[in-house]
Hints:
By secondary structure, this protein is α/β, with parallel strands linked by helices. It is 18% helix and 29% strand.
Amino acid sequence: MSHPQSTVLLFPRNPLTCLSANIRSFAANILMAQANMLLAWLKRELTSSNATWKVIAADLPIGIVSTDAIALGDGPPARREHEIADLLSFLKHAGVGNVVWLTADMHYTSAHYYDPNHAVFRDFEPFWEFVSGPLHAGTWSPGQLDNTFGPRAMYRKGCDCEQGDNLAPCFGLQFFGRVDIDGKTGVMTVTLKDVEDNDLWSVDIAPKPDARLLQRVTSR
């Protein structure tokens, strides 16, 4: 199944649904109709998925400040953040859990944990976001996080101040990530790696019970 600038990848033997979305279309005036379609599509596909894990593979991270990204600075949602706030709030109230974001295009690698207890906008459930890439491009230093959705940098690695931004790939600071899901326990392990395939950092994320199933049981 597909949608303009979006793709659904289903893995029938694994508890995973992967949704690929062009977040840059959010809040771009000339693409508002497309942005609304993308938001509606994400809500529909995430709600209909029975997979343990729902992965959103996006072209931009949520909380790293950049003129070309979603985050623009501390404070309540603005511009592209309105669609993100809408989606996160919807997922919470629809009982859709175990949503993980895999993102790119910041030219370094990082792991972010979003916690409503540390956020300005708080109507969402905590979630993880992982950033790596692009491959074979200049490396940047880690960027500033804003407090709109309360991200905390659990790990990050890029070039340092002495090396300067846009460090050439020949220096080896290129990164990617690996995701493993245990077939028995459903635990997702995300590992951030360097170009030599060395493990830099990893985390095990245990799946939470499906709130939608619990709601059905309690309503009987």
